[in-house]
Amino acid sequence: MSTPDGAPRAGDDEAIAPFAYTPPAPLRRAAVRPRRGAVALGALLAALLALAWFVLGARVLEVRVDPPAARIDIDGGLALGFGGRFVLRPGAYTVEASASGYRTERRQVQVDAGAGQRLELRLAPLPGRLALRTTPVAAHVVVDGAPVGDSNGEPLVIAAGEHRLRIEAERFLPHERTLAISGRDELQALEIALAPGWGSYQVDSRPSGARIVVDDVALGTTPARVELLAGPRHLRLSLDGHRDGVMMVDAVAGEERALDPLVLERADARLRITTRPSGASVTLDGVFQGRTPLELAIDSSRAHELIAFKAGHDRVLRTLSAGSGSGSRAIELALPALTGEVELAVEPPDAKLLLDRRPLPPGTRTLTLPGVPHTLRAERSGLEPREIRFTPRPGFPQRLQLTLRAAAAVTAAKPATTGPAERIMTAEGQELVLLRPQAFTMGSSRRDVGRRANEALREVKLQRAFFLGVAEVGNAEFRRFRPAHAAGEFKGKPLGGDDLPVVNVGWEDAALYCNWLSTRERLAPFYRVQDGRVTGFDPGSRGYRLPSEAEWAWAATVMADGSVHRFAWGAELPPPARAGNFADRSGATVLGTVVAGYDDGFPAAAPRRRFAPNRHGIFDLDGNAAEWAHDVYEPLPAAGTTDPLGVQTGELHVVRGASWRHGGITELRLAFRDYGKDARPDLGFRIARYAE
User: Fold this and answer.
1) Residue 100 belongs to a domain with what CATH number?
2) How many whole angstroms separate alpha carbon 42 and alpha carbon 166?
3) Alpha carbon separation from 368 to 400, 402, 621, 692 (Å, rounded)
4) N or C terminus of the chain with fewer C-beta within 10 Å?
């Protein structure tokens, strides 16, 4: 206790008074700051260690690029470059080289632990651009045989290098030159003046006023000045009451001249022709006129040769003498029937037989029938019916064998490959297939690349069925006709093997062979011969002959659906493997132009039937040997004709089809028309004959 004045009392316990307490601050260590020099030293040591690690394990990759100024980039890790050398650790990298005007090149590279490596890259230059203009008209541009566009000034993209340039325009001469394209996306300009491809000719007739038709195009009436494209031109003048006048003009580009007036003969007589039976084909002076009954306008001032013929009947020839007078005249011709004997061998013997859908009396085993196509059908309950087509051959008995099989056996058997309706064999063992053509368009479009001026489109009617040789005539077959024939060789390549197509034969040689074959089978020869020379032909004969140009074109180009093939294999280049025997890599050492990237294995002629046949089962219509056609060559046969055979005689004859020497786009097209009079080492023929 305390006293009133606050002093402690005696005897009391001592009091403890509180006081303010502030805890002491915690002890801190003094901060140690490293010196800047120590930090830099550490970083340097780390970098040196990393560099040592990189250098000790790195390898050198040398990259050489053409062009040398190309930029090089490497992706995949650290790469130190010094000129064209790069130091980098082993591993996978992507090297990219690029340069203006060149295609960028990328290459995957595996850098290994071995010695230094080298990588060489060649950058391909970008295509060049060609601004091409032609005057006075735009033209089609073909580079190395392939179309690239038109010469309208729009840049054409063309690969760098040297190329063969061809410029084609309707009615102008083609222009060809070698062109160097620098590439690297550079633009080059070129202007070309096209040369006119025609001559100017004055055409007149006596009397005047005749219609002028050139290559199936009407150009006015006489007298007139007309432009004719360069080359052989077929000019026809037509005037009512007169016979057509025709002439061949060998037009020259840039030429101007007057043609001699053409005198037109009057057609002052009318001739009405009927036949028994009707529907017979009629030719007047070798030119097909139509089927009976028909009426013709003829010149009565001279003689004429009239021939009527019909399937299953013998032909009738009538000579109309000169001076018979004007007016109308009627002629009726009776055509004797031609029949052939056919023996039937049918199993089982009691099968029902139907001839042309009409039942035959039971037990019939011999038939005497007109020489026209027939259908024979055999039927019996429980057996699969069978049907065949055949044509009796007057003077040559035939034997037909039909064996019926059980329906179940037929179902289980492998189906036979369907083929043409009928085939026949010659006395020499050559096979021909029956074809039944129809109207079609012959020639090629004006825009068809590679087209020639003699290929204008025209409608042709084919009404007469005909047989066409499945293969070209071979050396062995031709030597049975002419034992001394030697096909020879071409630059060391033999052409005379027995099964190679016969070549080095002229058109007349081929025609005489056809007559020889007809004589072997006692058929009336198709070609007229005097003193060993062909002087004309008989269109009514069913003897062997060369196929007409129209028949060849139909068999080669027209498909089952009526479409027309541009090439034997289809519509586009290049040909597929084994498409035919053309100029290819195997013949590059002995030939000129070859089909790029194509190899058929034969540098020259190939054995027949070595390549696939067409839809009719015919081999080598295009390729192997080019082929003589029957027709005398005209720049363009008349359009709208029926079963055309052309004029009776002429110096030049048509050649159709490419050969083993052809590799250009012009010749490979099925529309390609050639002509000649002399034998060639790549020119042969095949046979044909009318079926009626």
Assistant:
1) 2.60.40.1120
2) 75
3) 13, 18, 36, 17
4) N
Distance between first and last Cα of the chain:
166
Phi, psi of 175 (to 5 degrees): -115, 130
Find where tokens 């046979």 sit: 687
- The average confidence (pLDDT) of the chain is 84
**352 and 378 in contact (C-beta within 8 Å)?**
yes
Q: What is the Cβ-side half-sphere exposure of residue 669, based on CA atoms within 13 angstroms? A: 19
- Count of beta carbons in the 10 Å neighbourhood of residue 211: 16
Mention every residue, 6+ apart, whose C-beta is less than 8 A from residue 526: 514, 515, 518, 537, 538, 541, 543, 544, 545, 689
Phi and psi, residue 51, nearest 5°: -65, -40
Coil, strand, or helix at residue 48?
Answer: helix
* Each residue's pLDDT tens digit, 648-662: 999 899 999 999 999
The CA-atom distances, in angstroms, between 356 and each of 71, 214, 371, 381, 607 are 83, 46, 14, 20, 40
pLDDT tens, position by position, 390-403: 777 776 677 888 88
Write out the residue range of the structural domain in which residue 348 sits. 339-416
Strands 161-168 and 140-143: antiparallel
- Asked if 317 and 354 sit in the same domain, the reply is no
Q: Are strands 327-334 and 269-276 parallel, antiparallel or unpaired?
A: parallel
Among 48-62, 97-111, 422-436, the least confident range: 48-62
Tell me how many domains the chain contains: 6
Phi-psi region of 481 (alpha: psi -120 to 50; beta: other; left: phi over 0): alpha
Indicate the helix (H) or strand (E) that contains 476: helix 475-481
DSSP 565: -
- Strands (E) in 173-216, as ranges, are 175-181, 187-193, 198-203, 205-206, 211-214
Which residues sit opposite 533 in a β-bridge?
Answer: 530
d(Cα 377, Cα 404) in Å, to the nearest integer?
11
Q: Is residue 678 one of the residues assigned to a domain?
A: yes
Residue labelled with tokens 């038109």: 150
Secondary structure of residue 375 in the 3-state scheme: strand
If pLDDT is split at 50, 70 and 90, which confidence band does 608 have?
very high
Residue 27: inside a domain: no
520-551 pLDDT, tens per residue?
Answer: 888 899 999 998 899 999 998 999 999 999 99
What stretches of 577-649 adopt beta strand conformation (E)?
Answer: 626-632
Q: Which pLDDT band, with edges at 50, 70 and 90, does 12 fall under?
A: very low
Residues 229 and 180 in one domain: no
Which residue is associated with the tokens 């037909």? 400
Residue 602 · residue 586 · CB < 8 Å:
yes
Q: What is the pLDDT of residues 361-389, one digit of tens each?
A: 988 889 988 877 788 899 988 888 888 87
Cβ contacts of 661-665, under 8 Å, gap ≥ 24 = 661/583, 661/591, 662/582, 662/583, 662/626, 663/582, 663/583, 663/584, 663/591, 663/592, 663/593, 663/594, 663/595, 664/145, 664/450, 664/593, 665/142, 665/145, 665/146, 665/449, 665/450, 665/573
Residue 409: CB atoms within 10 A of its CB come to 10
Tens of pLDDT, residues 440-453: 889 888 777 778 88
What's the CA gap between 493 and 587, in Å, rounded? 10
Read off the CATH number of the domain in which 594 is found.
3.90.1580.10
pLDDT at 126 over 90: yes
